[in-house]
TrEMBL record:
<keyword id="KW-1133">Transmembrane helix</keyword>
<keyword id="KW-0716">Sensory transduction</keyword>
<keyword id="KW-0807">Transducer</keyword>
<dbReference type="InterPro" id="IPR050402">
    <property type="entry name" value="OR51/52/56-like"/>
</dbReference>
<dbReference type="InterPro" id="IPR017452">
    <property type="entry name" value="GPCR_Rhodpsn_7TM"/>
</dbReference>
<protein>
    <submittedName>
        <fullName>Olfactory receptor 52R1-like</fullName>
    </submittedName>
</protein>
<dbReference type="Pfam" id="PF13853">
    <property type="entry name" value="7tm_4"/>
</dbReference>
<comment type="function">
    <text>Odorant receptor.</text>
</comment>
<feature type="transmembrane region" description="Helical">
    <location>
        <begin position="253"/>
        <end position="276"/>
    </location>
</feature>
<dbReference type="GO" id="GO:0005886">
    <property type="term" value="C:plasma membrane"/>
</dbReference>
<dbReference type="InterPro" id="IPR000276">
    <property type="entry name" value="GPCR_Rhodpsn"/>
</dbReference>
<feature type="transmembrane region" description="Helical">
    <location>
        <begin position="213"/>
        <end position="241"/>
    </location>
</feature>
<keyword id="KW-0552">Olfaction</keyword>
<keyword id="KW-0297">G-protein coupled receptor</keyword>
<keyword id="KW-0812">Transmembrane</keyword>
<dbReference type="InterPro" id="IPR000725">
    <property type="entry name" value="Olfact_rcpt"/>
</dbReference>
<dbReference type="GO" id="GO:0004984">
    <property type="term" value="F:olfactory receptor activity"/>
</dbReference>
Length: 320
């Protein structure tokens, strides 16, 4: 069946064959960033720069932590988990996004699209839980410094890492399984730069209330719980910091907490905006929605190595 996806004066032929026995399309069309065609080369250059910073920064952190035995402590092991999550999260979207912007390679194969959905949501969940674990580690280190090594042993950290990974994989797997068993409409156009669960869900020609309900459950059980724990942890941390006798120590601790909170907000605010816009923000301009959707996959992986790595003395000294 021939079809066409039209965007203003550009027409992209949908290179699909007739539906197979499972009513799955052969591929989808990712529009990229509509309305900014004249600036796509500059946007691609910016995205490429951010991606390179993210990859180099996170690989550097992983190498330093792996090769230095003195950094095999809870804080740095959590940082290694965060760096791994950042690498996978950014690499699952950025190469295709750059191909769209630079080479106009808008087509993405069906299974590649579902794979992208899986990796984006699974490792966004992993990143959220790692940030929560790092907040708890910081809370224990500041509020219970003498018991920190007994509470967060290497075994406990490894078990937490495995649990974080399993949570992301198990919660997100049903997304792809449910979608793969449902029929798609003739429209194969995704008005974004990557395949996201709700964007793909809108292309289904069937009742998607179960999918949407499960998506809401995952979003609030993952994001809601993690945000609550992070918020309580930092409130307790700030209370402990205010009781420090030294003004210099309070200033340094406030600076560290402020930078960490900025990184956390850089992930959660765009992610929540994107999530809520898909469901309720029908009047939000498409360009605004798409830019926010790109921000939460680009900015945190770039900022995390700087905030958690360069500003950490033990890692900074080894980089220099």
């Amino acid at each position: 069946m021939d079809c066409f996806a039209k965007k203003e004066h550009n027409i992209y032929p949908c290179m699909f064959t007739s539906r197979n026995s499972s009513t799955h399309p052969m591929s989808f069309i990712l529009l990229g960033i509509p309305d900014l065609e004249n600036f796509q080369s500059w946007i691609a250059f910016l995205f490429c720069f951010m991606y390179v910073v993210a990859v180099v920064g996170n690989i550097t952190i992983l190498h330093i932590i792996r090769t230095d035995n003195t950094l095999h402590e809870p804080m740095y092991l959590f940082l290694a988990m965060l760096a791994t999550s950042d690498l996978i999260l950014s690499s699952s979207t950025q190469p295709k996004m750059l191909a769209i912007l630079w080479s106009h390679a808008h087509e993405i194969e069906y299974h590649s699209c579902l794979t992208q959905v899986f990796f984006i949501h699974a490792f966004a969940s992993v990143e959220s839980r790692v940030l929560m674990a790092m907040a708890l580690d910081c809370y224990v280190a500041i509020c219970f410094p003498l018991r920190h090594s007994n509470i967060l042993t290497t075994t406990v950290v490894v078990k937490l890492g495995v649990a974080v990974m399993l949570r992301g994989l198990l919660l997100v797997s049903p997304f792809c399984l449910m979608i793969s068993r449902m029929p798609f409409c003739p429209n194969r156009v995704i008005p974004q730069s990557y395949c996201e669960h709700m964007a793909v869900l809108k292309l289904l020609c069937t009742d998607t209330r179960v999918n949407r309900a499960y998506g809401l459950f995952v979003a609030f059980s993952v994001g809601g719980f993690d945000i609550l724990v992070i918020s309580v942890s930092y409130v307790m941390i700030l209370r402990a910091v205010l009781q420090l006798p030294s003004g210099e120590a309070r200033f340094k601790a406030f600076g560290t907490c402020a930078s960490h909170i900025c990184v956390i907000l850089a992930l959660y605010i765009p992610a929540l905006f994107t999530f809520l816009t898909h469901r309720f923000g029908h009047h939000v301009p498409q360009l605004v929605h798409i830019m926010f959707a790109n921000v939460y996959l680009l900015v945190p992986p770039m900022l995390n190595p700087i905030i958690y790595g360069v500003r950490t003395k033990q890692i900074r000294d080894r980089v220099i």
